[in-house]
Amino acid sequence: MSSYQDKKENLKTRLKRIEGQVRGLHKMVDEEKYCVDVLTQINAVKGALNKVGMEVLESHTKGCVTNAIKEEEKEDEIINELMDVVFKFTNK
Question: In this entry, which stretches build a coiled coil (predicted)?
Answer without folding.
Answer: 1-28
